[in-house]
Amino acid sequence: QVQLVESGGGLVQAGGSLRLSCAASRSIFRISAMGWYRQAPGNQRELVAIITTSGATNYGDSVKGRFSISRDNAKNTVALQMNGLKPEDTAVYYCNAKTTQSLGATREYWGQGTQVTVSS
Questions:
Q1: CA distance 49 to 38
Q2: Pairing mode, strands 57-59 and 4-7
Q3: 24 pairs with which residues across the strands?
Q4: Exposed e or buried b for every residue in 12-44, given b needs 16+ CB within 10 A?
Q5: CA atoms lying within 13 Å on the CB side of residue 10
Q6: What count of Cα atoms within 13 Å lies in the side-chain half-sphere of residue 95?
Q7: Residue 9 in contact with residue 115, Cβ under 8 Å?
Q8: CB under 8 Å to 19, separation ≥6 — which residues?
Q9: Residue 104: other Cβ atoms inside 10 A
Q10: What is the mean pLDDT of each run of 10 residues along the chain (120 residues)?
Q11: Which terminal CB of the chain, N or C, has fewer other CB atoms within 10 Å?
C-alpha cells in the first residue's frame, strides 16, 4: 500500500513558484513530524523543511526565506510552498514522515518522490 503520496511537482521557470503537497495514510500512527527532502543526481539527499505536529519548523539553509512548510494535523498532510525558485532547486523531492513508537523507537516513511525542474 502507498502510505505517503506526493503531488505538485513539475517544470517551472526561474523565479516562479510551486506548491508541493504530501498526504500520509491514516494507517501511519503517531506522526511526530513531516517534511521534505530533496536529491539531485550525484548529490546526497538533503533536508528541505520539516514541521512537527506542534508547528516547529526547520529549514535547509539554501531555502530559508523562499520556502514555507505548513501542515494539517487532522488530515495528516503537509505542504511546501516554494517561491523564488532557482535552477539549483531542481531535484526529486521526497516527502518524509517520522513516527514515535514504544521504548523510544522511531520509524520513518518515505514517499516515492516528485520531480521539480527549474529552468534558467
A1: 10
A2: unpaired
A3: 4
A4: beeeeebebbbbbeeebeebebbbbbbeeeeee
A5: 11
A6: 28
A7: yes
A8: 8, 79, 80, 81, 82
A9: 6
A10: 90 98 91 96 96 95 97 88 98 96 91 97
A11: N
